[in-house]
Design a protein that fits this description.
The chain has about 230 residues and is of the alpha+beta class. The chain has one domain: Aminopeptidase (3-Layer(aba) Sandwich), CATH 3.40.630. The protein is built from six helices and twelve strands. α4 packs across α5.
């Protein structure tokens, strides 16, 4: 690929975002993988300064990602994972991310998440970054685990019965593994739920080899201690 550009999207580009969302949704083999963001969320994000970014290839929007700050609203993911009430205003959600089917496998989602994470850290008084990802969506899991610093803290049912990991990163604490590693087949959600209930956290996703089917992969778990940056 040549002539790639990453930048913040503006109001006049709202239709580009909606069109790409429709293309991605129409090409999904499994509709479980994506719960499309409603129009009002996309509109509010594109109106909120520096909260939605896109990648263009020769002038064509091929990927985008967005975040928003939920405040103390009921949909704040902090409620699900026990973030204190007085810190809910410092939570930012990474919401929908879409990559055009012709450009998958190019690590564009990782680039977008890294780009927006830096903006969120620099421009907003946030402490917590959260996101939800389908346990069946290998490309998104790989991008989130490897580019955002987030760990999967919980497995829940949201968005009309869809299973989702809740990812979280505390910007003021650093995770230190206890080396109690467990490797679980991605489709074994019952065992994963037991591990989450026992205090384990998911920290990565792996396939057997480069030729493995993306539908067959493993989730890596461990227990962690969280320490301050001064330690």
């Amino acid at each position: 690929m040549t002539n790639l550009t990453i930048r913040i999207l503006k109001k006049p580009e709202l239709n580009l975002v909606k069109n790409l969302q429709q293309i991605v949704t129409a090409n999904l083999e499994n509709q479980e993988l994506l719960a499309p963001s409603p129009d009002d969320l996309i509109t509010s994000s594109i109106n909120y300064p520096n909260s939605i970014a896109g990648i263009f290839c020769e002038g064509r929007l091929i990927a985008y990602s967005l975040f928003y700050i939920p405040g103390k609203s009921p949909d704040n993911l902090g409620h699900d994972i026990g973030i204190p009430e007085n810190e809910l205003d410092r939570v930012v959600h990474f919401e929908e991310s879409c990559v055009h089917p012709d450009y998958r496998g190019k690590k564009l989602l990782s680039v977008l998440m890294s780009f927006l994470t830096q903006i969120a850290i620099k421009q907003h008084n946030i402490k917590h970054i959260c996101a939800t990802v389908s346990p069946y969506n290998y490309p998104s899991l790989k991008a989130v685990f490897q580019s955002s610093g987030m760990l999967a803290r919980k497995l829940v049912t949201k968005y009309g019965g869809r299973k989702r990991y809740i990812f979280h990163r505390n910007l003021e604490l650093f995770p230190v593994p206890e080396n109690k590693k467990v490797k679980v087949l991605s489709k074994d959600l019952d065992l994963q739920q037991k591990l989450f209930n026992q205090g384990y956290v998911a920290y990565n996703v792996v396939k057997g080899d480069k030729n493995s089917n993306e539908k067959i992969f493993h989730i890596l778990f461990d227990k962690f201690q969280w320490v301050t940056s001064q330690v």
